[in-house]
Amino acid sequence: MLRRLSVLSLSAVLPLTALTGLTGLTGLTVLTGAAPARAEAPHRTPECQGDWLPATPTSGDVMNGKLSFLGLPAVTVGKDVDWRVDPYKNRSWQMVFQSLRWMGRLVADYESTGEETYLGRATEIAKDWVTDNPYGGRTTSPYAWAEHPIALRAPALVCLSRYVKAGWLKNSLALHAKLLSNPKNYELGHNHGLDQDIGLLRIGCRYGNPKWKNLAVSRMVKSMKLDIDGQGALREQAPRYAIYVHDRLRVAVDTIKDCEMKVPAALATRWESLPRHISAATQPNGYMVPIGDGPADVQPAAFDHAKSTVQVFDAGYVFGRTAWNDPKSAYYSIRFGPALKFHGHEDHMGVTYYAQGRSILTEAGFVSYENTPYRRWTLSPEAHNVPILVGRKFRGHTPTPLVAKSVRKDRQTFTVTDKAYGVPRKRSVLVNHREDVMAVLDSGGGKLRNLWHLDPGLKVVSNEGGQIVVGDGGWKASIVQLAMPSCKPVGGQRVVRGQTSPYQGWVSPGYMRKEPAPVIVSPVAKSLLTVVVPGTDRPEVTCSARTLIVHTPAGSVTLRASSSGTLS
């Protein structure tokens, strides 16, 4: 659903049909106004063209009764659609199915081709949906009237209403508007809320209802100011959703203009600020870092970026790189900030690391929204590169403040703390550029271990004496662990891959996919220093009196671990 479609420019905004009156029917607003049953000739309208249209299924697929959503195999629905069908037991599939946007594809293509059979079939589908899914009906599909399908279905029905003026369609749109207007159904500060506003605005514009139009735009401003902060970061805790919100805000802005309304400055500002967050969360290989509900295969279009190579977002992200527009650039991310919400995971203190053209430390990622044991594991700390206090219960939804930072061109350090296990937990991260090194010092109020999820493309070459070597062909990287404050190498690391009871050693490279990947499980210690050295299988690491010297292929790096648990 994140695939970007080109926006079809319209030479002029067509006038919207005004209502001649409103009458009540069983508590609903009935939309009235005389109009011919069909337009004399198809023409492109703002309601039926643009980014809201799905790329799949095509009109040909829909005409053949073959529906393919989310990359899953096509499902045959036939002429008389069974609206309760749930072939994959998948909420996302159900949402797309019930949204009827695939029906809207037919109307859009009718406008482009004049193919009457497309419009006829779209009318049949929509009427069948309305007939089979009365609001609150005993046989109505359980997902038919969920808040998000309502929001996404409204523009599709508005599009159809340009050519079909039947009472069943007008009454259904009135019901949609009533439900979208109800504050009890509204998802404030969330991408669903934005979709609800777009749906309500489309209905209000189509039928000239100022109450609906003004409510949609005013809510939209309030909601987006909550969802996107002043730095341009999306607060939903999964950067890939920033792409979705950015695309949907473009649709919202276009819709406001189509309605001959003024785009609020606050809304435009939030929309224009999002690219900074998206570009910062994009790795040098062009793919977004898989944080929260974000799979590893999301590749955003090119966005403008800030000049700074290191960006700290108060929403809970550090993103750093050695250079922009260089696939060989080193790159890292660090998670901290507000408690878990929306599309976030329990990943506070988690880090990722990319260097020399390869992903080294990654995350388990996102597989789907289904409530399965695997999904629950991907949300847990154990699916992320974090320190875990042994023998203590994890307290979810704990905020993690960033308590110190130092940003220099060739070296950055960050320190985060929390009490997610009931006692203090601290992580200090140092990233050195030019001579690529990442060092992580973990400490806390008890014994701990940490986890290091490796990219599935890497293989463990050796594991001995506290040094793990991983490789990709002739390229190697080393991970060295030392006990602090003694500076002694600590051995006993386990490498887990593809374990199911409990889950460990997996990465989801894309939606509904998972594959085994190596995870380093450290031994238990009071304090652990982990040093990642890309590009070598023989890193010389010397440590004395808390001063470390790391010898890399590009030169030596000196760093110090203080008694307070910070690196410099």
Can you put this structure into words, describing what you see?
It is a single chain. The protein is of the alpha+beta class. 26% of the residues lie in helices and 25% in strands. The chain has 11 helices and 28 strands. The strands form 7 sheets. Strands 10, 11, 12, 13, 14, 15, 16, 17, 18, 19, 24 and 25 form a 12-stranded antiparallel β-sheet that branches. Helix 3 packs antiparallel against helix 4, helix 5 packs antiparallel against helix 6 and helix 6 crosses helix 7. The radius of gyration is 27 Å and the shape is elongated.
Write a brief structural summary.
With 568 residues, this protein is an alpha+beta fold. The protein is built from eleven helices and 28 strands. The N terminus is likely disordered.
Features:
568 residues; alpha+beta; twelve-stranded antiparallel sheet; five-stranded antiparallel sheet; 11 helices; 28 strands; 26% helix; 25% strand; elongated; disordered N terminus
Q: How far is the first residue's CA from the last residue's CA? A: 43 Å
What would you report as the Rg, rounded to the nearest angstrom? 27 Å
Strand content: 15-25%
Distinct helical segment count: 11
Helicity level: 25-40%
Oligomer: single chain
Low-pLDDT residue spans:
1-30, 32-41
- Helix vs. strand class: alpha+beta
Mean of the pLDDT scores?
91
Reported for the largest beta sheet, the result is:
12 strands, antiparallel
**What's the shape?**
elongated
Number of strands: 28
Protein topology:
Layout: E1 22-25, E2 28-31, H1 59-63, E3 66-67, E4 75-76, H2 91-99, H3 101-113, H4 116-132, H5 147-161, H6 167-181, H7 191-206, H8 210-227, H9 240-258, H10 265-280, E5 310-313, E6 317-321, E7 331-335, E8 351-355, E9 358-361, H11 373-379, E10 387-389, E11 402-407, E12 411-418, E13 425-432, E14 437-453, E15 459-464, E16 467-472, E17 475-483, E18 488-489, E19 494-496, E20 499-500, E21 503-504, E22 506-507, E23 515-516, E24 519-521, E25 525-534, E26 540-544, E27 547-552, E28 555-560
Antiparallel strand pairs: 1-2, 3-4, 5-6, 6-7, 7-8, 8-9, 10-14, 11-12, 12-13, 13-14, 14-24, 14-25, 15-16, 16-17, 17-18, 17-25, 19-24, 20-21, 22-23, 26-27, 27-28
